[in-house]
Write a structure and sequence with these properties.
This protein has 86 residues and is an alpha+beta fold. A hairpin with a 6-residue loop joins strand 2 and strand 3. A 4-stranded antiparallel β-sheet has the order 1-3-2-4. It has one domain. Helices cover 28% and strands 31% of the residues.
Length: 86
């Protein structure tokens, strides 16, 4: 069930808003160290349920975040950032 998404896409998605989301293979903002993109591994309304499934699957290195409508970080994608700089 792995889907690659940006954090802003996740927060704007009706499917994930209000859910705890487990991300793997994250790309992080270098300034804030917050994930800006990753593979959605699993999600749940209950953090404890999500963590239990992650343990059962042997996934212990995922980032788990609560997905709200507000995007806490907004950066340009690498290609867009290059275009803006050049």
């Amino acid at each position: 069930m792995t889907t690659r998404m940006s954090w802003s896409e996740l927060c704007r998605s009706e499917k994930y808003t209000g859910m705890w989301v487990a991300l793997d293979n994250c790309r992080y903002d270098q300034t804030t160290r917050q994930p800006i993109e990753g593979d959605v591994v699993d999600f749940d309304e209950e953090l404890s349920e999500l963590c239990a499934r992650m343990r059962e699957m042997g996934r212990c290195a995922c980032t788990i975040l609560f997905c709200e409508e507000d995007v806490f970080i907004q950066t340009a994608a690498p290609r867009e950032a290059e275009r803006l700089q050049g």
